[in-house]
# Entry
Amino acid sequence: MGSRSHRRRHARRRLRSSDRGVAAVVGTLLALLVFLAIFGIFLSDYLPLWMQDNEESFSATVANQFGNIQDTMGKLYLNSKTGFAVANPVTMQSDSVPVFSQPTQGVLSFLENKQLYTNLTFHLQGSGQWFSQNVTPAGELTMSLPNRYYVPITFSLQDGAVIQAQPGAAQQIMLFSPSVLANSSGQQSSLYITLYAAYGNSTQESYIQTDNVYTSLIGSQQYPGRAGTAVYDNFTTEYSCAWSKYWNSTFSALNATGYPATVSVVPNPSVACSTSAQGGIQMMHVSFSTVTNFMLTVVAYNVDVGVVT
# Structure
């Protein structure tokens, strides 16, 4: 009897030990499932939101930096600073999420595109003949941000203006306007256009954290127009929607003040923004029927991207 009772007690101890083992395994599995659930939520919800914030901040930073480059060009001209280059930094990548997501890398380019040019035609002061001033090829500084979580954006500095473009031609805005001053007083109308012409070696940079855009002033030339001249501005651009919106907005404000000139823009927004394709180069026609006072100023710059030795 003693031996049988001992065996029953030993079997009960084995069962109790086995129960504790099963509970430990179940607890571990439940903890692992909770961890995997939280980790899945992090990957599917929190990580995209975190990276979206990073890319949105990256886009805003680059937009301001392009504005700083435009501002540098203006200051160099106003102060007639020739003979040295001013460096403006450009952030080349977004923040990342350590381990889980790599930073989004931008591509910074400067290109003298032979398809891009500007031509202004008017009556030069002291002459009855039409005068045409051509700037070709027109240099263009661009920054492409192929965002994965935020909308992809391209920034362009061309003809002294900074343009932001998203996929789809209608998603184009003029972030920083070109140097154009137009006003009217009574029957007197004035138009002053300062055209920034950029030259330099075609360059493309990526896979670095911060790059530099070096801008130096080459020189400037003024072309005064005859009193009462018509002015025709013909230029090519990949961003006709942004330019047409800008010109029509400018002219609407002037017309409200009684601007005497008849102004036309081709393409107009309904035409230029009707296509969903982006990147095609279009010809823009901007015309003033008569302008009492007109001055065209062409300012030439040299632009280098990267480290200048």
Summary: The chain has a mean pLDDT of 83. The helical segments are 2-78, 240-256, 269-272.
